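// run 5 | inverse folding | seed 20
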């Protein structure tokens, strides 16, 4: 698609002017430090700005430099990320920090090729680091930019197709101005977040409305076109708070996969024809080779992941016999309730911890 040079200039001018007048304050917008920008971009990959702010400040306080992050142990990194979700981001950030310290003299690389060689950095994040930290002419294409460009230039092909993605990357590259690259990229993302929103875009206040083809035709609500999502399946899962005197058992998930590297209350998926009590006893026997007695239900927690939802049925249990032989976990600990905050847990288990803290004592 060829954009007329005058149209391009007008869109660039209007977007930058609007950004100067409307941009939100964000802690990572006050820095040019490539390490801090990289951390913020990884956090923003699947999380909203409002949520990221407090995590970003906490993370940068814990690991102010790339050296400090590279030297941290994985438990400390997971603890600083606890609650933010998509934990592979934290594991990759940690891995990449070690590589940057070892192979790049602790300097964030500033070529596309080098950035793409690092774990957790795809084309969007590389473009964001290059343009925001180094003001290089690198395009960005995130969900906000896809939506805005699809509407502005009336792209009706399915944006999940790789051919459309290629076209959009080309378009966002063609749109880059000669200067103020950082501001321009941020302006496109900001407009998508604040004005060209998924539902009810605020076209009446949009600085590029005059050039917007979808608004002219009146189909802005129908764009972008995406592949419809399958319904999200639901699973019933059990977990046990297994007491032995004044301590209970927590287990460490293997480093790879969903919630990898986080601690949890052991348990597993309900099988067909099984009661919840039978499930927790079977899971503990299979996973840890110990026998338990189910004492009473503690709480049921609903939680949504990207591709499925769960109801986590949690029971307080009593350890009966056996020596732990871990099968599906990397480590285990018998801890006292006052030690819980030393470990990083997934969101669903944090709700269990809140329920435990509301109680006094152990198994009644
Ligand atoms: S005019 Fe409306 S649809 Fe077009 S870019 Fe602006 S907010 Fe989006």
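// decoded
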């Amino acid at each position: 698609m060829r954009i007329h040079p005058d149209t391009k200039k007008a869109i660039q001018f209007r977007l930058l002017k609007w950004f100067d007048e409307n941009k939100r304050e964000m802690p990572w917008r006050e820095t040019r430090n490539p390490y801090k920008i990289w951390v913020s971009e990884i956090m923003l990959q699947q999380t909203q700005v409002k949520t990221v702010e407090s995590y970003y400040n906490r993370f940068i306080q814990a690991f102010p430099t790339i050296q400090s992050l590279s030297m941290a142990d994985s438990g400390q990194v997971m603890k600083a990320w606890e609650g933010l979700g998509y934990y592979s981001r934290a594991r990759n950030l940690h891995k990449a920090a070690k590589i940057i310290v070892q192979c790049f003299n602790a300097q964030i690389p500033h070529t596309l090729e080098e950035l793409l060689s690092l774990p957790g950095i795809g084309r969007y994040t590389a473009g964001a680091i290059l343009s925001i930290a180094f003001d290089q002419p690198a395009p960005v294409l995130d969900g906000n930019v896809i939506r805005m460009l699809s509407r502005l230039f009336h792209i009706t092909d399915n944006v999940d197709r790789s051919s459309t993605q290629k076209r959009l990357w080309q378009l966002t590259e063609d749109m880059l101005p000669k200067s103020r690259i950082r501001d321009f990229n941020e302006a496109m993302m900001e407009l998508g977040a604040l004005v060209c929103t998924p539902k009810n875009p605020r076209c009446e206040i949009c600085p590029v409305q005059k050039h917007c083809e979808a608004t002219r035709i009146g189909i802005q609500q129908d764009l972008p076109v995406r592949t419809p999502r399958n319904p999200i399946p639901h699973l019933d899962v059990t977990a046990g708070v297994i007491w032995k005197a004044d301590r209970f058992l927590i287990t460490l998930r293997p480093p790879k996969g969903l919630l990898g590297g986080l601690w949890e209350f052991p348990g597993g998926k309900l099988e067909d024809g099984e009661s919840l009590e039978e499930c927790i006893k079977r899971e503990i026997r299979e996973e840890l080779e110990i026998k338990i007695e189910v004492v009473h239900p503690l709480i049921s927690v609903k939680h949504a992941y990207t591709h499925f939802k769960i109801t986590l049925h949690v029971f307080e249990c009593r350890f009966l016999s056996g020596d732990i032989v871990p099968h599906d976990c990397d480590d285990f600990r018998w801890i006292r309730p006052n030690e819980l905050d030393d470990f990083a847990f997934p969101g669903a288990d944090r709700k269990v911890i809140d329920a435990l803290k509301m109680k006094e004592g152990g198994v009644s």
